[in-house]
Specification:
Layout: E1 4-11, H1 17-30, E2 38-44, E3 48-58, H2 61-90
Antiparallel strand pairs: 1-3, 2-3
Length: about 110
């Protein structure tokens, strides 16, 4: 099973408009065909601004293996927790208060 991963490219230092356009054209040329790329200006006056390009790419085999390993571990942990809760709900460890007592009407 493959899935798409969001990847980011930051352009934080640029001097002229021509250099920036050149970098953007180079990045666009290297993107996958169905990448659905977006360009955003991020940051503020204090920490600086940068141009961020996000795009989707296919997951690598190594990333898929790592994700599958964590998914299996998470699934088994959830199953153990579910079994623990079901066992806990199945056992009543206290006597219900007022069991066997008669009700009295007080006016």
């Amino acid at each position: 099973m493959t899935r798409r991963v969001k990847e980011f490219v930051d352009i934080s230092e640029y001097a002229s408009l021509d250099e920036l356009i050149g970098k953007l054209v180079a990045i666009r040329g290297s993107l996958p065909e169905s990448s659905e790329a977006e360009l955003r200006l991020r940051g503020d006056e204090v920490f600086g601004r940068r141009i961020t390009i996000s795009y989707l790419r296919e997951q690598t085999a190594e990333e898929a293996e790592i994700e599958q390993r964590y998914a299996d571990a998470s699934r088994s942990a959830m199953e153990r927790e579910l079994e623990r809760l079901q066992a806990q709900l199945g056992a009543c460890c206290y006597a219900a208060p007022g069991a066997g007592a008669k009700l009295r009407m007080v006016a």
